[in-house]
Amino acid sequence: MLPNQKIKDQKIYNSSDIIHTTSSILSTPIEYLKGVGPLRGDLLRKELEIFSFGDLLDHFPHRHIDKTRVNKISTINYQTDFVQVAGVLQQFDILGEKRAKRLVAHLKDETGSLELTWFQGISWVQKNLVPGQKYLVFGRTGFFSGRPQMVHPEIEPFIAAKADGKEYLEPVYPATEKLKARGLNGRQLGKLTYQLFSQLKPDDIPENLPEAVIAANQLINRYEAYCNIHFPVSQVAYERSLKRLKFEELFIAQVRLNLIRLERHKSSRGVVFEKVGELFNDFYNHHLPFSLTGAQKRVIREIRTDTGRGHQMNRLLQGDVGSGKTIVALLSMLLAADNGYQSCLMAPTEILAQQHYNGLKALLKEIPVEIALLTGTVKGKERKRILAGLLDDSIHFVVGTHAVIEDVVQFKNLGLVIVDEQHRFGVAQRAKLWEKSLIPPHVLVMTATPIPRTLAMTAYGDLDYSVMDELPPGRQPITTVHRNEGARASVMDFVKTEIQKGRQAYFIYPLIEESEKLSYEDLMQGYEQVKSFFPEPRYRISMVHGRQPPEQKETNMQRFVTGDTHIMVSTTVIEVGVNVPNATVMVIESSEKFGLSQLHQLRGRVGRGSEKSFCILLTGAKVSKEGKERINTMCATNDGFAIAEKDLELRGPGDISGTRQSGALNFKVASIVNDKELLELAKTTAEQICEEDPELDMAKNLLLKNYLRSQKGKNAWSRIS
Ligand code: ADP
Ligand code: MG
Q1: How much is the CA Rg of the chain, to the nearest whole Å?
Q2: Among 1, 20, 96, 116, which residue's beta carbon has the most beta carbons within 10 A?
Q3: Is 245 part of a structural domain of the chain?
Q4: pLDDT 10s digits, 249-306
Q5: Which residues pair with 372 in a beta bridge?
Q6: How many Å lie between the centroid of ligand 1 and the Cα of residue 293?
Q7: What share of the chain is helix, strand, coil (3-state, %, to 5)?
Q8: How far is the centre of ligand 2, averaged over its atoms, from the C-alpha of 379 (Å)?
């Protein structure tokens, strides 16, 4: 193999002897590295999943110690987070008993004293650290009765830095307690890595990015990046390595997603919706209750194109709450019917399925198609009739909860599957549907609330993607305010005036995941409280919660929908989809307990008609910093896309529901929150390359192709399909 520096040489791309770049030395089992051996090898495998030399190379330091940057102890204040100081270790003291037992020693420099504390490994610390010696200490500082303190510091004998003025950055690696106990702490791992590097040549870490990509994005080469992520010659070199490796990670992921998508376009057969026929046209020209927004029209065009090409459509439709996704679903279903295919629409809850069914049935009154509702409560004869109808194609549209539709239903010729409120619908479930017919049906996934663009790009990058970023005309923005407990009476008065104007109101209580019982009691208490402000018979109240049997839920819901009741008291079961345009106030109790996208989704239940709507976020007097930030965000904006961004920023990608299982977000160095620009860059670059050369057969893409091949099966990406 050629040394990495020579890769710039154009000749390499024409050379036919480059076939596989998996380096043999990197696949050497870790115990063969000098200084490891079987025992430590075992630990490294178990604790850090380091099996080979290559895995150790991929175990990046989480920080570097710069020995030239030692702080004075007196500079530590309440704002200090992590700090590095040096000083003389004083005598040990053992304080406390049993679980509170701890080892304490002070570290003194000429400016002050820092208390060091250990709760674990006490005897090891006592044996290995010597009072009177000078140590270099790193860790997070805290304050304990006004004095600075550091718990479980990283500590080592102090060796004066070389006085050549150069930066000297020593890597520290993530390690576990078990590893530390066996003498493999965060810095000793660095010694192993150093040992490894002494055995590596540049061509052991071959380039995997096309030359043009490297040049265009001013990236350093791969070998250099690996050297400097571990042992940077300077802070600048470190940052350049980080950029290169982040880009590589994001780019490789994007290439994979693009290849999956293109492969599907190319190879998957799809039912063909050739024509726009009578059903669609009749509905569109004579029964559409409003004119479509520009965004709705655009998405329908996209779906038309997708479904007419003979390949399976797999499209994610992102639209804010209330942007009118339902009508897009309906028009797509009519398109399927025009071409002789059945459709199913799946909702996450019974209430929603019921509501979709009612809504669609009303819209389709004059259109000659059969529509059925299939949920867990549909039993006996009716169920038999529907199942038979789907099998002989006398029923064209079925609406239901996805659990039901997934499991038992067989279709004569299913052509389109629409999944509403994707957040609760996993990748695996999606795949299950495709097995329902020989030629997989087209799939349209509609999100309940927007997800940030970066997240969509990574978690759903294998899907085609539509955005509806326009609300139907005439909507008035919802006014959102924050009130605390003390203002409850005036909040109730406000709700009263709205009801007197003929409007309706929601009171929402949080569902506490850990304790269903608690949530239930909260709700009951809340119900009583609301009732005392709004006494019967003057006011009528519906209540809906998870413990009710579906029929009762449905009846209570229906009373509110028809305007028979003034107030709906509910847990978050109404979270998604419910449509009562006459409701203009929503009061959310303990709103600090809700996540941002959930609050936004809830709020989307009001502001659906032409009247001005309000959302009142109630909290106790004390709200955490993050809770406060969520509430401020809600009061500041109605834009679901902006809220989704904020949500991602506050919670991190792992917690955004529905994406966790995708495994698509486990980046090692890159972050979809902090590296947005690089991600965009990686995405467009990957798209260009994959469009131009979907098989990666061109000489310039050979390195990339070989790399992808060598990585097969190594990570979640390669399994996504
Ligand atoms: P979501 O995208 O949240 O599912 P819906 O499909 O429930 O939104 O639509 C929200 C409301 O807006 C419904 O009452 C619907 O009838 C109405 N609507 C949808 N599209 C339009 C439009 N183009 N013009 C006016 N009203 C519309
Ligand atoms: Mg909806």
Answers
A1: 31
A2: 116
A3: no
A4: 999 989 988 888 888 777 777 889 999 999 999 999 999 999 999 999 999 999 999 9
A5: 398
A6: 10
A7: 45, 15, 35
A8: 26
